[in-house]
Backbone:
């Protein structure tokens, strides 16, 4: 795969940040001129290979931020750079892969056909497509279901196909909007383990939207806590509990995990960040 | 094995239910003929149920038997079924041309409306309005206009007028159904195609057209029925010889002495309708991959 090796600080190959958002605002104008400030002056950077979660109450602009990075929407003010280019250019370059809350598979295509879709659209040859699809199916553990149709799969399996599809062109950035939101707790944890493993293997940077605090803590290098009306970043919490790809089940039982969960929760519930940092150092 | 035999059983059930429907219809006909009053059922002076005389309601076997006999007394007369079959094929051919033109025009309109938002509000009301013009009114017009067309070798013939009128009816359900189908993909899927930087054509081919199949198939079926009806009616209004429409008018006059005769071309038109519906059903089978998620057929 043509993916950069897992990036630590200052990889020599690519010094550009994966995502650089500066003073970004997005104001929606409804009918009758009413405005909603979905994002207000948000700045955020994501380094190559870094896993960043966005967490916050409903309506705080997480999806809006993700859609702006994906160039599915245009900002009212501010700039977005993805790997040093504009968001639009990054989209045209296929710099990112994306997965939404609904798996969004095309029902008339088999699992393989769905994974091959982006490759097909961008003119990859048949043999190359098949090889890549087989590789990805192996990665998400669905080799036996290559020829199945989406309606023959469970929700979790569909979501894994969607993730495989997002990874199809070996993007160095993954954008995920509550991809596990519709799954039960057990499946969810298994998917989280898989995602951590996949990120370890591919070295992709991830911007991950979630409502679940443990999920954010388990997966992330940094957790971005947002607040609503207007959508702002309240605080950014470094969590990184162990090497990517080496995080296992037992991490969820560790003291550090619980501590991070508590910190994020307190931030979400609006405790002053300063006091919290005090707690942290004790 | 179970998975294979279940659809087969379902198919059989459908065939049996379909056959039962025909049998029930035949029974109702014969029962009413047997039990109903000879002068029909009247409310005041209005007849609400037909007379049951052999003239008004011939026995089914009279209709059936008549089909096997020659058309008329002439010594060289062909058997009725052959004449009706030839007329059916003639009508079917014109209806098919009308259907094809109608489907092409309907699809093209739907594509334009999908592509350009403004076009939808500009065109759609006219499409709906077009169907309120009575067929009888436009048939002579089409014929007269057509008669004035001469392009080198090409001359407009009457059957083309009939096909045009058939397509005039057929394009309507297709344009409306296709427009709904083309706009049916989830915002999610449309976003996905945008993420892939896929242009309008690629999005059309990979997403919008496949997604529209479920809407398109019923529309194609409606269009086929409309094309057949349009052809038969237009044959009458334009006075085109050779088709079922003509036979229906011609034989209706014979009902007095030969009550089974008018029914033969009516069965012919039913046959044409069945063939048309079967053809659309076949398209549905070919495209069944795109109908996943619909209720099992
Ligand atoms: N297309 C739109 N038009 C108008 N307002 C919008 C639009 N999209 C989002 N908004 C508004 O922007 C705000 C942020 O929405 P967004 O979807 O980003 O929230 P979110 O954080 O993803 O919420 P959730 O966790 O429920 O998904 C909301 O108040 C919403 O009403
Ligand atoms: Mg959201």
Residues:
């Amino acid at each position: 795969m043509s993916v950069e090796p897992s990036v630590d600080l200052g990889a020599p190959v690519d010094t550009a940040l994966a995502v650089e958002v500066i003073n970004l605002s997005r104001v929606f104008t409804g009918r009758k001129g009413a405005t909603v400030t979905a994002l207000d002056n948000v700045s955020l950077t994501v380094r190559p290979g870094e896993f960043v979660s966005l967490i916050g109450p409903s309506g705080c602009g997480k999806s809006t931020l993700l859609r702006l990075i994906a160039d599915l929407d245009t900002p009212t003010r501010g700039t977005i750079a993805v790997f040093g280019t504009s968001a639009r250019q990054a989209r045209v370059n296929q710099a990112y892969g994306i997965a939404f809350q609904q798996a969004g598979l095309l029902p008339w295509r088999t699992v393989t056909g769905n994974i091959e879709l982006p490759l097909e659209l961008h003119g990859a040859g048949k043999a190359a497509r098949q090889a890549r699809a087989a590789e990805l199916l192996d990665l998400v553990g669905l080799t036996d279901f290559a020829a199945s149709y989406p309606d023959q799969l469970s929700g979790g399996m569909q979501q894994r196909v969607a993730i495989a599809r997002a990874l199809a062109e070996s993007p160095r950035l993954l954008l995920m909007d509550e991809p596990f939101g519709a799954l039960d707790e057990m499946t969810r944890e298994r998917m989280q383990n898989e995602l951590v493993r996949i990120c370890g293997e591919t070295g992709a940077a991830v911007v991950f939207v979630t409502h679940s605090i443990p999920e954010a803590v388990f997966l992330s290098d940094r957790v971005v806590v947002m607040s609503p009306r207007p959508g702002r970043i309240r605080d950014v919490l470094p969590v990184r509990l162990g090497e990517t790809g080496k995080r296992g089940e037992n991490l969820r039982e560790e003291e550090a995990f619980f501590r991070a969960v508590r910190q994020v929760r307190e931030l979400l519930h609006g405790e002053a960040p300063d006091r919290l940092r005090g707690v942290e150092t004790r | 094995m179970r998975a294979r035999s279940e659809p087969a059983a379902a198919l059989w059930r459908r065939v049996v239910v379909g056959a039962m429907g025909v049998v029930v219809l035949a029974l109702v006909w014969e029962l009413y003929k047997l039990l109903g009053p000879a002068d029909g059922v009247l409310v005041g002076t209005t007849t609400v149920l037909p007379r049951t005389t052999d003239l008004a309601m011939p026995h089914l076997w009279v209709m059936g038997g008549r089909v096997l006999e020659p058309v008329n007394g002439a010594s060289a007369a062909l058997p009725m079924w052959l004449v009706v079959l030839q007329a059916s094929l003639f009508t079917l051919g014109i209806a098919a041309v009308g259907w094809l033109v109608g489907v092409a025009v309907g699809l093209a309109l739907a594509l334009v409306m999908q592509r350009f938002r403004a076009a939808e509000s500009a065109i759609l009301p006219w499409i709906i309005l077009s169907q309120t013009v009575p067929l009888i009114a436009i048939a002579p017009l089409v014929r007269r206009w057509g008669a004035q067309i001469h392009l080198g070798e090409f001359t407009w013939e009457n059957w083309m007028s009939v096909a045009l009128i058939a397509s005039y009816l057929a394009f309507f359900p297709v344009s409306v159904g296709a427009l709904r189908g083309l706009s049916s993909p989830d915002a999610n899927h449309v976003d996905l195609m945008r993420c892939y930087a896929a242009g309008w054509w690629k999005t059309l081919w990979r997403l919008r057209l496949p997604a529209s199949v479920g809407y398109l198939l019923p529309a194609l079926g409606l269009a086929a029925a409309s094309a057949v009806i349009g052809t038969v009616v237009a044959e009458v209004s334009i006075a085109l010889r050779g088709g079922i429409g003509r036979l229906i008018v011609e034989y209706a006059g014979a009902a007095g002495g030969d009550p089974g005769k008018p029914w033969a071309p009516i069965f012919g038109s039913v046959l044409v309708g069945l063939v048309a519906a079967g053809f659309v059903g076949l398209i549905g089978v070919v495209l069944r991959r795109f109908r996943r998620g619909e209720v099992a057929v």
